[in-house]
Specification:
globular, NBEL1 protein, BEACH_Domain, 237 residues, Neurobeachin, Chain: A, domain 1, WD repeat
């Protein structure tokens, strides 16, 4: 698979799916769901210019420290000593892929809607915690080193998860009173289909092809643990 990928006989998307499968990740287990990277950092421009490296996220860094400002807090957390010596050191107390995160993204689509409601004791979680906007989700990641959710493969092929086709009542945001309905898209996307098309194009772009291995090292490779993980600020609880 690696050789095929290097020779460009398979796409970045296909290679990531194969890596997820080899790592034991599967659509049949929310706790080991396939994980994909955030690849863009421009969710505000009117047009998306895939020839401009500045629109892409730095794939060599864990999502928690893509924003340089978060690195200090993350290092401080790691240097905290557990007085009982029971807990190994870590940079992040939460994970880049977990069942709640998958349900968060897929809340508008069954069976994930029902699973989310079960998780929240029989009702929808409060609107402000829902997945309601792609630009706002990215901004929250940049502002908060404790939120380290990466993406799921659906962001690259499944426009329906961005639409509230079932008309679920997801509540309204506290401050703006905005009703949570379809997911708010970046300005450069004119419809859910357009978002998926451009996002997939970004995944297969020259920039991502040249840097994807850096993210793979963090999630599936040698920077998962040990000294390389500590140096990369990539140690998880």
């Amino acid at each position: 698979a690696l050789q095929k990928w290097v020779n460009r006989e398979i796409s970045n998307f296909d290679y990531l799916i194969q890596l997820n499968t080899m790592a034991g990740r599967t659509y049949n287990d929310l706790a080991q769901y396939p994980v994909f990277p955030w690849i863009l950092q421009d969710y505000t421009s009117e047009e998306l210019d895939l020839n401009n490296p500045a629109v892409f996220r730095d794939l060599s860094k864990p999502i928690g420290v893509v924003n340089e400002k978060n690195a200090k807090a993350v290092k401080e957390k790691y240097n905290f000593e557990d007085p009982l010596g029971m807990i190994d050191k870590f940079h992040y107390g939460t994970h880049y892929s977990n069942a709640a995160g998958v349900m968060h993204y897929l809340i508008r689509v069954e069976p994930f809607t029902t699973l989310h409601i079960q998780l929240q004791s029989g009702r929808f979680d409060c609107a402000d915690r829902q997945f309601h906007s792609i630009p706002a989700t990215w901004q929250a990641l940049m502002d908060n080193p404790n939120d380290v959710k990466e993406l799921i493969p659906e962001f690259f092929y499944f426009p329906e998860f961005l639409e509230n086709q079932n008309g679920f009542n997801l509540g309204q945001l506290q401050i703006s009173k905005e009703v949570v309905n379809d997911v708010v898209l970046p300005k450069w996307a004119h419809s859910p289909e357009d978002f998926i098309y451009k996002h997939r194009k970004a995944l297969e772009s020259e920039y991502v092809s040249a840097h994807l291995h850096e993210w793979i090292d963090l999630i599936f490779g040698y920077k998962q643990r040990g000294p390389a993980a500590v140096e990369a600020l990539n140690v998880f609880y």
